[in-house]
Amino acid sequence: MNKHELIDLMTGVKSSKKTYYTELKKTVDQLKKKNMQLEIMNDITKNMNMEIDIQEILRNVIEKLKQLITFDDSHFVILYEEEPALLHICPNGHCELEMDPKNLLHPFQEFSSALKEKQPIQVEVSQLSDFPEKDRLLSLEIESLLLVPLYGKSKKIGIWTFGRKKKKTWHEAELEFLEQLSNQLALTLENAKLYKEVLHSKQEWEDTFKAVEDMIIVFDHKGTVYQSNDSARGFSNLVPLIEKSQNLIHDTFSFNKPGFQEILLQHDTILEMHAYPIQNKEHQVYGVIAYYKNVTERRQMEVQLLHAGKLGAIGEMAAGIAHELNSPLTAILGNSQILLRKISQDNPDYMLLDDIKICGDRCRQIVKSLLTFSRQDEYRFHYYSINEAIHQVLNLLKYQLGKKQISLHLSLQEDLPFIKGSRPQIEQIIINLLLNAKDALDESSQTEKSISITTYSENKFMVVQVTDNGTGIEQERLPFIFHPFHTTKDREKGTGLGLSVSLGIAKDHGGKIDVLSTPGHGSTFFLRLPLLTEEERG
């Protein structure tokens, strides 16, 4: 032993160094252990407020926990719909994480005790009552089981078990850490469940939102679209629809009340719009849900039903009037003809009797037209002359036009072929066009009021052209004149159905109605009906 070694031995320096390094190593080990604990806690905590993979978290926790605490088996018994279920089994750190519904259990005594006590309890595996994993644990020579309760913010979650092959006492520090870890894990599991429920509800709402066939659009406070369903995104007239929705959106924001309006778009599309305010907890409106339903077909059907009822009533009345007039007309015409045969043309009364006969013939023609009109609901297609149909209409309306001092000009092409259709229905179109022309002339300041009717063939169509020199139609109104109930007339003059019904009849015949108009100068309507095909002519 040299001099320095002897001095160290006598002063105790060597012993102090050994103790120092031992304590230092112990402190380092404790710090490593503490860091590992913090790392495990952090793995759980950082995922509390996001969509998490519980399986991955548990796998990481189990692997790291085995470096801190000695255990040979671990699993979870989770309350599933208020019944305990064997949810996660992690023998030797290898987790079987799929829940099998067959594993739903009845509560066993130790499970209930751990949850009731709200603190870890240690039991011998051989003494377990009816725990389904008992045989498996005994086969692995697991002798003791630590049951750590899992409690969330508002309710119990389940228990976390740790098995050991030897009956080794759990240190207080281990139990304290496992309690902290279990509490944090319980909160994470509870948040994960709540998040999945919210996500599921959100997905259900989105699926419903997308599946609705009608259009749904959500607007912000600026009237900007920030969400819409597939039906809305696929709508061809979406831009003009949004533009025409802005006033109601603004009113819904301003008054915090649901609103309704009807929107007319191109191609005779009619939409019903319902707007509902979206409120926060303070009842402040931060958005508007707009629900759009296409009611075009429904409105057309309503118009057809209304028109059918109206025509039925008018037809019944016309038939009644015609039959009532037939009897006196027969007497008038018969007596006038008898008297005309008895006197010579030189007799001063001859002209008077002749006028009576002429007027009687005219009345008989009107009665005949009324009877024809009353039978138009038959809607049967036949071959007919369009010019004859026009003359039939004029027998009904010539007196009304003459009374208004409206001159009538006819330019009917004589060699026009027959066409196929319901003549009474086509006559109804011509009546509507002439009555509209008469009403336009009533409002006109023209000194010479006139209506001209022209017929000709053009590009496989028979054309009936009705022109007046009345007030004309403003350009902005032209797209809407064929919409049901669209009218500028007084209530007693019309319901806005004439042109809508006329267009429907024309379409049923494979035709169409076009219009040209200049405000202050008049309008021209073109009724186009298809000519017969070669097969039909043959």
Structural class: alpha+beta
Kindly report the average pLDDT value: 79
The level of helicity is: 40-55%
Query: Helix count?
Result: 14
What do we call the CATH homologous superfamily of the largest domain?
A: GAF domain
Task: Provide the domain count.
Answer: 4
Q: Rough shape?
A: rod-shaped
Give start-end ranges of low-pLDDT stretches: 93-105
CATH C-level category of the largest domain: Alpha Beta
What Rg, in angstroms, do the CA atoms define?
47 Å
Beta-strand content estimate = 15-25%
Calculate the terminal CA-CA distance, rounded to whole Å.
Answer: 139 Å
EC number: 2.7.13.3
Domain Histidine kinase: 320-533
Coiled coil: 21-48
GO molecular function: ATP binding; phosphorelay sensor kinase activity
Descriptive account of the structure:
- The chain has four domains: 30-198, 2-Layer Sandwich (Beta-Lactamase); 213-294, Beta-Lactamase (2-Layer Sandwich), CATH 3.30.450; 296-378, Helix Hairpins, CATH 1.10.287; 381-538, Histidine kinase-like ATPase, C-terminal domain (Heat Shock Protein 90, 2-Layer Sandwich), CATH 3.30.565.10.
- The chain contains 14 helices and 17 strands.
- The chain has helices at residues 3-11, 13-45, 54-65, 109-117, 134-139, 172-211, 230-233, 238-255, 296-342, 350-374, 386-403, 423-442, 498-508, 534-537; strands at 73-80, 83-91, 121-124, 144-151, 156-164, 215-219, 225-228, 259-265, 269-279, 285-294, 382-384, 406-412, 419-421, 449-458, 461-468, 512-518, 522-530.
- The strands form four sheets. A five-stranded antiparallel sheet has the order 2-1-5-4-3. A five-stranded antiparallel sheet has the order 7-6-10-9-8, with helices on both faces. It has a five-stranded mixed sheet with strand order 12-14-15-17-16.
- Helix 2 (13-45) runs antiparallel to helix 3 (54-65) and helix 11 packs parallel to helix 12.
- The longest helix has 47 residues, at 296-342.
- It is rod-shaped, with a radius of gyration of 47 Å.
- The termini are far apart.
